[in-house]
From TrEMBL:
<dbReference type="InterPro" id="IPR050315">
    <property type="entry name" value="FAD-oxidoreductase_2"/>
</dbReference>
<protein>
    <submittedName>
        <fullName>FAD-dependent tricarballylate dehydrogenase TcuA</fullName>
    </submittedName>
</protein>
<feature type="domain" description="FAD-dependent oxidoreductase 2 FAD-binding">
    <location>
        <begin position="3"/>
        <end position="430"/>
    </location>
</feature>
<dbReference type="Pfam" id="PF00890">
    <property type="entry name" value="FAD_binding_2"/>
</dbReference>
<keyword id="KW-0285">Flavoprotein</keyword>
<dbReference type="InterPro" id="IPR027477">
    <property type="entry name" value="Succ_DH/fumarate_Rdtase_cat_sf"/>
</dbReference>
<dbReference type="InterPro" id="IPR012831">
    <property type="entry name" value="CobZ"/>
</dbReference>
<keyword id="KW-0274">FAD</keyword>
<keyword id="KW-0560">Oxidoreductase</keyword>
<dbReference type="InterPro" id="IPR036188">
    <property type="entry name" value="FAD/NAD-bd_sf"/>
</dbReference>
<dbReference type="InterPro" id="IPR003953">
    <property type="entry name" value="FAD-dep_OxRdtase_2_FAD-bd"/>
</dbReference>
Length: 469
């Protein structure tokens, strides 16, 4: 019998498999996708948010624990478990050497419009390179890997894991198990059920795009909740970004993001603004905009800038709509011309331009305008004008399984002795809502490593018990 069964193939699952194998356990990893699509959402990532008290290798200045915690507290609105959040934050300061040991490389600090050279360590080659490095290391260490093997249910004896059952009907026993099979963001039916119908009679989820993997159907998550595992989180809360409306339904990844929101205005299909575009730095606030757009008519928005913004943000993959006048732009976007022009002119008139600095929370703001724009407010007065149609893009959902600092799955408030969970399946313990760049990988890395250690220890204890029986 295998010691540790790991269900999933993304960052958290791989961290668990590697840690369990390093602890001496035999490990079998089951990945639901084909080999070519392995890695879950981790293949679309770029970086890890890291605490550090002084400059370190690829990180500049300092990003101490308390600042990291305050950033997380702000974006979640307090919907976070402080004990588990601080565990993640502290673990983020010391994991890079272990990651390097398993073949992950980091690139030199970034500068410019991303504002993350101080807070985030970027993977050389992105998430795909990280996932491939971990799989190579796992294979080298003797971890068994099966692809095209989705797990649909687990067999329990009370709160103890006994076996997993695959979609093909195979029953796989193990002495302990780590669940790291992702959320339910690619299950369109579940998203539709969770979001329901809005006051306009629309089903918002019908217009969602999935930035991440198509394989995160949430089958195992739903099974665990129905089997009595303690759940946490709101099924409508997610890492949801405003992305290019022309993005594919699945696996668009990072390149579909539109990063110029803070440099202009965003309007809905009625030509009206609906939120403060300059609330905070983009890495801290970009993941609120998908939900904001999801609440607009037709679940669509339009990010509008003028020529002054060009060169100040990461350019999107697809070119935007351009026009020499606001009225022409409205016609090209099929927006109500008078309402759109009136909105932009009211914004322009309300701008109080001080010293513009997109690398700081500057003093350029609006007065007498609702909603206000609190930073980086400059009139849109320099043609050509550019616009990008936006739709909600879900990366991962926050509904998950409740855990403790041992990553144990709980049943009726009590931790399982040999069933653990990591990654998106438990991220809602730390992320009740909101997001800040790189924190998902921090959660997956911290709890993946913890789950792997604990699963190996549980398997060893079980072996000892059987030997002495």
């Amino acid at each position: 019998m295998i010691d540790v069964l790991v269900v999933g193939g993304g960052n958290a699952a791989l961290c668990a498999a590697l840690m369990a194998r390093e602890a001496g356990a035999s490990v079998l990893l089951l990945e639901s996708s084909p080999r070519a699509w392995r890695g879950g959402n981790s293949q679309h990532t770029r970086n890890l948010r890291c605490m550090h008290d002084a400059p370190q290798d690829v990180l500049v200045d300092a990003y101490p624990e308390e600042e990291y915690w305050q950033d997380l507290l702000k974006v979640t609105g307090g919907l976070t478990d402080e004990h588990l959040a601080r565990l993640v934050i502290r673990a983020s300061s010391s994991c890079r050497d272990w990651m390097r040991k398993h073949g992950v490389h980091f690139q030199p600090p970034l500068s410019g419009a991303l504002h993350v050279a101080r807070t985030n360590a970027f993977f050389m080659g992105g998430g795909k390179a990280l996932v491939n490095a971990y799989f190579r290391s796992a294979e080298r260490l003797g971890v068994q890997i099966l692809y095209d093997t989705p797990v649909v249910s687990v067999e329990l004896d009370g709160d103890r894991f006994v076996a997993a059952r695959t979609a093909s009907g195979e029953r796989i026993e193990a002495r302990s198990c780590v669940l790291a099979a992702g959320g339910f963001e690619s299950n369109l039916e579940w998203l539709r059920e969770a979001w329901g119908v809005n006051e306009r009679g629309e089903w918002p989820a019908d217009n969602f795009l999935i930035r991440g993997t198509r394989f995160n159907q949430g089958v195992l998550l739903k099974h665990m909740i129905e089997s009595g595992a303690d759940a946490i989180g709101d099924p409508t809360q997610a890492h949801m970004v405003a992305i290019d409306a022309r993005a594919p339904l699945y696996d668009g990844g990072i390149c579909t993001r539109i990063d110029c929101v803070s440099l202009g205005v965003v309007v809905n299909r009625e030509g009206n603004r609906f939120y403060d575009e300059g609330e905070d730095f983009w890495p801290k606030r970009y993941a609120i905009w998908g939900r904001l757009v999801a609440q607009q008519p037709g679940q669509v928005g339009y990010s509008v800038i003028d020529q002054k913004a060009i060169g100040r943000f990461m350019p999107p993959v697809f070119p935007g709509t351009t026009a020499d006048t606001l009225a022409e732009l409205a016609r090209k976007l099929a927006l109500p011309e008078q309402a759109f022009v009136r909105t932009v002119e009211a914004y322009n008139a309300a701008c109080r331009v001080g010293t513009f600095d997109h690398t700081a929370l500057d003093d350029c703001h609006t007065e007498g305008l609702a909603p206000a724009k609190t930073h980086w407010a400059r009139p849109l007065d320099t043609p050509p004008f550019h616009a990008y149609a936006l739709k909600p893009g879900i990366t991962f959902t926050y509904l998950g399984l409740k855990v403790d600092d041992r990553a144990a799955v709980h049943f009726g408030g009590w931790p399982s002795p040999n069933l653990f969970v990591a990654g998106e399946m438990m991220a809602g313990n730390v992320l009740g809502k909101g997001y800040t760049a790189g924190v998902g990988m921090a959660i997956g890395t911290a709890f993946g490593r913890i789950a792997g250690q604990q699963a190996a220890a549980a398997a060893t204890t079980r072996n000892v018990d059987h030997a002495s029986a």
